[in-house]
Amino acid sequence: MRLSSETSQDSGAEYYARNGTITKLEELNVIKQSDDMHVQGKQSLRARYIYGFIFFATNLVAWFFRDYGAKFLHPLHNLRACKTDQDECFHAGGVLRVSLGCFIFFVIMFATTSGARKLHEFQNTWHSRWWILKLVLYFASLIVPFIIPKSFVLLYGDVARIGAGIFLLLQLISMLEFIAWCNSNWMPHPQSKKCGFSGLILATISFIASYGGIIMMYASNSTCIFNIFTITWTAILVKVMMGVSLHSKVNEGLLSSGIMGSYIVFLCWSAIQSEPQTGKCQEHWRSNKDSDWSTIVGFLIAICSIVMATFSTGIDTRSFQFRKDQLQLEDDIPYNYGIFHFVFAMGSMYFAMLFISWDLNHPTREWSMDVGWASTWIKIINEWFAASIYLWKLLSPVMSKKVEDGEVSAQHIPPSV
């Protein structure tokens, strides 16, 4: 009996030793998997900047084809699609072909990564790694548009107008979500007794910038009736948005209306800058025609603005999701790859329209971008649309509440009445 008890004690010790070893191995595997997920998450976040750099380089390639491609890229004249006319592969045609190549690349990335959900899936590996293969795919996408007929390129140019409009809509949605985030994080709740000092400072700066910009635009456009009307209407919109946001039934505060006001003032200023240098409205710009450096710096700032607008809209994927209350798990992808690449595909159409000023046959000058009456009116309409959507977002909860109150009161009316 003593021997059997000692044997059972030994077997029990061995069992607990084995069980403890298994537990430690499981803990090590969990830690290793967690580290792998952390590394893959970092790779995914770094991949965004690589795609942003690819998009920036494509903008520079499109500008080079538009302004200097006909002078320096002589071998392209031997291509079948480029023999008849220089405009088919250079100038506006070159911009459309480069934009089409960029569009093809990001559409392929959208199609191959849109189903990604977890970091351990193949779509995440394809999105975050294999850069040599993706560079080959990118250059192949740029080559294909230069061997297709002109009719397909012109068709893409017509479709690009719609895609650029979709991009502006996505950018507006992202802007509204950013304003809501600022308002919820930097301004206190209406029933709270907190001051929200940082939010008030930012709101004050926004309104000073808005009205300061309006005054400066008045001073530099005092002889143009069209510009005076546009600036005056912008000032009215800023005032109306501030009044509605401060109304007791809305009670949204100053911060959101201040940021939105500065945004539409910027759109108004950008629309005035896009007016062609003909007529009375642009006499002050023609007087500064010798300032080449300011033109070049403004052009480079415009390209960086396109890239930053596309990049910031692309990474803000939660703004375009229907459900925003889902918990972020450790093995979930940090952002939606499909939405990210879709925004960049629409952004490729958008920069094409800016380079050719929304007109397929528009003769553009060197170091110029988004100049013409078509560009001016698109920015003005975008400004009015942004202000309308913002006001609707403020008033829709109040109106829906009134409808619900009316339905409740109607249910309490006696049938005899």
Explain this structure to me?
It is a single chain. It contains 13 helices and no strands. The chain has 417 residues and is an all-alpha fold. It has one domain. The chain is flat. The N and C termini lie far apart (96 Å). Mean pLDDT is 80; it is low at 1-18 and 285-291.
Task: Please give a handful of descriptors for the protein shown.
transmembrane, membrane, TDE1/TMS, single chain, mainly alpha, 72% helix, flat, Serine incorporator, transmembrane helix, disordered N terminus, 417 residues
Strand and helix order: HHHHHHHHHHHHH
**Count of the separate structural domains:** 1
Count of beta strands: 0
> How would you classify the helix and strand content by structural class?
mainly alpha
Mean pLDDT: 80
Keywords: Membrane, Transmembrane, Transmembrane helix
Transmembrane segments: 47-65, 94-114, 135-156, 162-183, 195-219, 225-242, 254-273, 293-315, 335-356, 376-392
Family: Belongs to the TDE1 family.
Membrane topology: Multi-pass membrane protein
Secondary-structure map:
Blueprint: H1 2-67, H2 69-72, H3 91-113, H4 122-128, H5 131-143, H6 150-186, H7 197-220, H8 225-246, H9 254-273, H10 283-286, H11 292-315, H12 337-355, H13 373-411
Keywords: Membrane, Transmembrane, Transmembrane helix
Organism: Rhynchospora breviuscula
Pfam families: Serinc (PF03348)
Overview in brief:
It contains 13 helices and no strands. By secondary structure, the chain is an all-alpha fold. The protein has one domain (41-398).
